[in-house]
C-alpha cells in the first residue's frame, strides 16, 4: 500500500510543473490558443502528383497501353447493372492464382466481354461483362456455362456497378 502512495505522489509531482507551464497569464492553455489561432497551411508535393490529382477521371495516364487508352475513353459513366460472376474464393494460398487463371481463360474465350479481377478481402473474384439488364446477363451466363462447365459452382448473375459506353 505504501508503494501505491509513493507512485501516486510521484505522478502528481510530475504533472504539477507540466500544468503550470501550460497555463498562460490569461489562464488559458497555450496549446488551445495555438490551435484556435488562424494560420496558413503550405502543402509541398511533387508536380506529378499535382497533375494526377487535377486530371479528369477518364483521362489517359502516361504509360497506358493503346488498348487501355481506348477503354478509358470509351467508358463514359458508371451505373447500376449486372455482371456474371465466374469465380470467387478466399483460400489465402491459391485463390489469387486461380482467379488470375480464370480471368485469363474467360477473357481468351470471350473477348467481347470485359472481365474484372477484384480483391475484396478476403475474396478474389472474377466478374464478366457490363450488362444493363438481367436478361442480357443471363444470356451471357448461359454462354459461359456452356464453355466452362467446371465453373458451374461459381457462376451466377450479380448486381454491380457497371461501366457504360454512351
The count of helical stretches stands at 6
Arrangement of strands in the largest sheet? 2-3-1-4
Overall SS class: alpha+beta
Query: In the CATH hierarchy, what is the class of the largest domain?
Result: Alpha Beta
Which residue ranges are poorly predicted, with pLDDT under 50 across at least 5 consecutive positions? 59-73
**Level-2 CATH architecture of the largest domain:** 2-Layer Sandwich
Which percent band covers the strand fraction? 15-25%
How far is it from the N-terminal to the C-terminal residue, by CA?
Answer: 78 Å
Report the helical percentage.
Answer: 40-55%
Q: Output the CATH topology of the largest domain.
A: Alpha-Beta Plaits
Radius of gyration: 29 Å
Major sheet attributes: 4 strands, antiparallel
Question: How many domains in all?
Answer: 2
- Tell how many strands the DSSP assignment holds: 4
Mean pLDDT rating: 78
What does this structure look like?
The protein is α+β, with helices and mostly antiparallel strands. The protein folds into two domains: 35 residues, no CATH class; 85 residues, Sporulation related repeat (Alpha-Beta Plaits). Helices cover 45% and strands 22% of the residues. The protein contains six helices and four strands; from the N terminus they run H-H-H-H-E-H-E-E-H-E. It has a four-stranded antiparallel sheet with strand order 2-3-1-4. Strand 2 and strand 3 form a beta hairpin. The longest helix is centred in the N-terminal third of the chain and has 21 residues. About 9% of the residues have low confidence.
